[in-house]
Structures are given as C-alpha cells and as structure tokens.
Amino acid sequence: DVLPSFDIFVQPSLYESQGVAILEAMAAGRPVVATAVGGVGDVVRDGETGLLVPPGDSAALAQAVVRLARSPELRASLAARALQEVRDRFSSDRMVAAYAKLYRDVLGG
User: Can you list the pairs that 44-52 forms with residues at least 24 positions away whose Cβ atoms lie under 8 Å?
Assistant: First the structure.
C-alpha cells in the first residue's frame, strides 16, 4: 500500500542476496536506486531498469537520487522498464513454470 506513494525507491544495502524489496518496488512501478551488491545487479540493470551505485558511496547514491528527482522522464522510463522486467521474469506463472521444470529435471522426466 505504501510503495505507490513513493516517487523513488532507494535501497542502499551493503549486502543483499536477491533484493525482494526491490522487486516489490519495481512491481509497483517505482524507479529504483540501489547499491550494486549481491544479486541486485541480476534485477536492476543500470540505466535500464534502475540506477546502481557502488556500496558505501553516499555521494554516488545522492547523485543518483538527485538525477531521478530532476528528471520525471527518466523516472517514468526506468519505472516502465522495471515493471515490464518484473512481469516478464518474476510473475507467478513464470515462477511456477520454472519450479515445475526444475522438479521434472530433478526427477528425470
């Protein structure tokens, strides 16, 4: 309920495995600024589905947030691509199909 009220979602993690909160923000159509740690780069492609900055670099983080704050067009573009990415790669149907395939492969058929 809260995510749609955000103009920008920022996650400055020093460690992140998958970034479920980032996926939720992307699914809510919010532009994302995140640190390039763990599996975040598998979901957020810098300049395409969000902006990535080095971990621990507060100046780069602030610069990315200001860049998005000043550019409604960039926010809209990143948010639209991020939403499509989540729909394409992380929908319920896609995830169920991937698990079903994994089980078939493991069970040999």
Answer: 44/19, 44/82, 45/85, 48/78, 48/81, 49/78, 49/81, 49/82, 49/85, 50/22, 50/26, 50/78, 50/82, 51/78
